[in-house]
Design a protein that fits this description.
alpha+beta; Creatine Amidinohydrolase; 3-stranded antiparallel β-sheet; 5 helices; 15 strands
Length: about 250
Amino acid sequence: MSVKSRTELQKLRAIGKIVRAALDAMASAVDPGVTTAELDRVGAETLARYGAESSPPKVYGFPGTACISVNDEAIHGIPGKRIVEAGDLVKLDVTAEKDGFVADAAVTVRVGQVSGEAEALARCAETAFREALKVARAGNRVNEIGRAVEKEVRRCGFSVIRELCGHGVGRTIHEEPSVPNYHNPRYHARLTDGLVITIEPIIAAGGGRSRLHADKWTISTTDGSLSAHYEHTLMITRGEPVLLTAA
């Protein structure tokens, strides 16, 4: 969507804060021995407290409140009986709606002491996001975001999972435009003032190829390598973008 009024921006800020609160509560609950279902329950309780609804089950029938993906699982992991262990990378992805407005954010949580590779990968997802913010300006092309993400990921020695990307958001989960994490000249549309999008580097320690599980939701790396994910919802301006899901 493109923000047209102060009221729309206020409502986007409101749902952005709720998504942030849910992510923070879930991240604080990540400890060895907790199940992904228990983490999901924390997210659900937080959204309910603020009068918000999870978007994935409402829009797509996803069997959970949040997407919770562990280690080689990149996105859309289904909460369940899986027990989180020390050394894991846990990706928490929350998309929620209130008053007709939607925000989406994700974070990679390190469980206790993680390997050097895991720490570097998680940090890289965050730094790639920060590099992308530098070119997320009205008038620039969408593919400049992907160029910035991929350049930083390659500098860190990792790979972008090219099948997975950011997107427009605001009134529902997925809107135009798609926001790839690599430079693709086909995505040459210009960013416009007020446009609401997600930027979300989804990266892998290995080759960057992905596969869909038999559950039809979870997407993992084909080579079993670790994956990391970092995401915010933001509004494009002529200057620095407005981060709607930041603390």
